[in-house]
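Quarterly update from the structural biology core.
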Amino acid sequence: MLRRTILATAAAALAMGFAAAQAQDKWPSRPITYIVPFGAGGTTDVLARLVTPKAAAALGTSFVIENKAGAGGSMGSDFTAKAAPDGYTIQGGTISSHAINVSLYAKLPYDPIRNFQPITMIGSMPNVLVVRADSPYKTVQDVIAAAKAKPGSINYASSGSGTSQHLSGVFFEQLTGGKLVHVPYKSSAESLNALLSGQGADMIFENLAPAMPFIKAGKLRALGVTSDKRSSAVPDVPAIAEVLPGFSIVSWQAIFAPAGVPRPIVERLSTELIKSVQDPETRAKLVAQGIEPGGMTPAELGAFQKSEVEKWARVIKAGNIKVD
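Predicted structure, tokenized:
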């Protein structure tokens, strides 16, 4: 009896393994859901629709974009973390959802590293420190000097507490020893309007893409980008790191799947999505939006993400920042 039980168990295990292998061989046999953990029309949503068509054609399927916004990207990310690890659910992950939120929120329903499988990096975009065209601040040095000489005299807006725009200001304070006053809004549109109108904000560390039209129109003056080197999109604007060594912040966009997706599927997803990101036409569209195209392998993205989680944990702890 024991022998028959052992043989039956072994046969069942072999059958399950064979079935799983067959499923992987046939993947994808239906559309792939691409979760965007933010609202429609935002950067993560736009990039999802930009990078998936060529990958879909290569895979012989389609990508269905679903927006699941809320809690700084946490609601949609939690949905993906709990999805079946079969390669039919992936998502756009950002510096917020997959690096900052784990240290920012007291209770996050997912672990951004353990619960996800990295696929590839779409690209990164620096924030840019901007002031109104009539501002007395002409350089980053001017802002540093004022923040030190008159602590609390400069208000900076952001699109919300815990965003990269907010934490850019926190990091700036930590490295300069100056004091700024944070004024959070609900969106980039609202914070930019506060700056442009001169009501409520003296400056913003804004994502480069939404700030670019106002810079080009001469309504905003760009003092510095937050990446460690100058951006090819605005090569005449210095990097803040040129006068503040160690200051480096980029708002990045990547693609993740739930943890446990079979390696062959991960490799195929990664291969086709990297090809799409690196396609000349796609790259040109990314650069036009101020985004530095990516294309990291899963291992490279995993290492980068880990370093980002550790970095922002230090910044958030030092700034004593929490969101309920």
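The domain at 2-125+251-319 is CATH 3.40.190.150 (D-Maltodextrin-Binding Protein; domain 2).
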